[in-house]
Design a protein that fits this description.
By secondary structure, the protein is of the alpha/beta class. The protein is about 20% helix and about 35% strand. β12, α6 (about 200-215) and β13 (about 220) form a beta-alpha-beta unit. It binds flavin-adenine dinucleotide and FE2/S2 (inorganic) cluster. FE2/S2 (inorganic) cluster binds near residues 227, 228, 236 and 253. Flavin-adenine dinucleotide binds near residues 50, 55, 73, 76 and 254.
Length: about 270
């Protein structure tokens, strides 16, 4: 159930060049939060009315702590990165469908989580929950360079594999190159494997193609542009195979029907 709250910042720390982690105390949101969902962060400046969608990176249900990890790209993320302990931030969440819609269950016990760049944060809570549920979790994380933000946070929950654009750590290339180089899907393992991915669109298209070729179900989380964040403006639509019940065209709203989709639902 979505809540609109004013949360207090517990801490903001810099993780890498331009990448920050802000933890807020938000028990009302944490209570209902699921991996794959996001929150809308409102700025303090009333001239910037639209909220900024940021994925839920981690939660602690015992303390109500909610962690957001983001790249500073403009006004809203810059403002958030400057909020230290004790500052207030307006939030709406949790929003969207999470990975609770993944139906394959125990017959797909090998879970390969793939995060590219700022698509890495939402994979952390998923790794935590799926590891707790008893799945064999592998995290394939793609970075620009050796500034491997969040890598150590995955270690308790997943076996990690790294790909970097500049080849400074792990496989030189993309997350798909790392999956091949590490032989993560040996012949016959396709039937036991499931992909979950978040990252830039070219990466997600690559994952969708590989999933189709190998016959592996894949769930992807889209982080495209948004406006209202609550299903009203159609500013976040993605082309879908089926007709949408809302507007009766081949569209899905990322903020409402997503951000997590089974790849075959979409025309990527
Ligand atoms: C479901 C979802 C989850 C996301 N999770 C994360 C995350 O965990 N970490 C992270 O770093 N980024 C994430 N993003 C991207 C993040 O929302 C944008 O980088 C952010 O809104 C930019 O705001 P700004 O004010 O700093 O930039 P500006 O460019 O000043 O933003 C201006 C306007 O454009 C919108 N906008 C700009 N870029 C994006 C974008 N890529 N996606 C959506 N709206 C955008 C803003 O919401 C705002 O309304 C996510 C996006 C979506 C849709
Ligand atoms: S952002 Fe307005 S409908 Fe999704």
């Amino acid at each position: 159930m979505k809540q609109y709250i004013i949360a207090t910042v517990a801490e903001t720390v810099r993780l890498a060049e331009g990448i920050y982690s802000t933890t807020v105390i938000a028990p009302e949101i944490v209570k209902f939060a699921m991996p794959g969902q996001f929150v809308c962060v409102y700025t303090d400046d009333c001239a910037h009315l639209l909220p900024r969608p940021i994925s839920i990176c981690d939660i602690d249900r015992s303390t109500g702590a909610l962690r957001l990890v983001y790249r500073v790209v403009g006004f809203g993320t810059d403002e958030l990165s400057k909020k230290g302990a004790g500052a207030s931030v307006r939030l709406l969440g949790p929003i969207g469908t999470g990975y609770e819609s993944v139906a394959e269950g125990k017959e797909r016990p090998v879970r390969i989580l793939i995060g590219g760049g700022i698509g890495i944060p939402p994979m952390l809570l998923l790794a935590k929950e799926w590891s707790k549920a008893g799945y064999e979790v592998h995290a394939v994380l793609g970075y620009r360079n050796a500034e491997l933000f969040l890598r150590d946070d995955f270690a308790p929950y997943a076996t990690c594999y790294i790909a970097t654009d500049d080849g400074s750590v792990g496989t030189h290339g993309t997350v798909l190159d790392a999956i091949r180089a590490e032989k993560l899907i040996p012949s016959g393992a396709e039937e036991r494997t499931l992909f979950a991915a978040c990252g830039p669109m070219p990466m997600l298209r690559g994952i969708a193609g590989a999933a189709k070729e190998l016959g592996i179900p894949a769930y992807i989380s889209l982080e495209e542009r948004m406006a209202c964040g609550v299903g009203a403006c159609l500013g976040c639509i993605v082309k879908s195979r089926e007709t949408d019940s809302h507007s009766h065209v081949n569209n899905k709203r990322i903020c409402t029907e997503g951000p997590v989709f089974e790849v075959n639902q979409l025309c990527l």
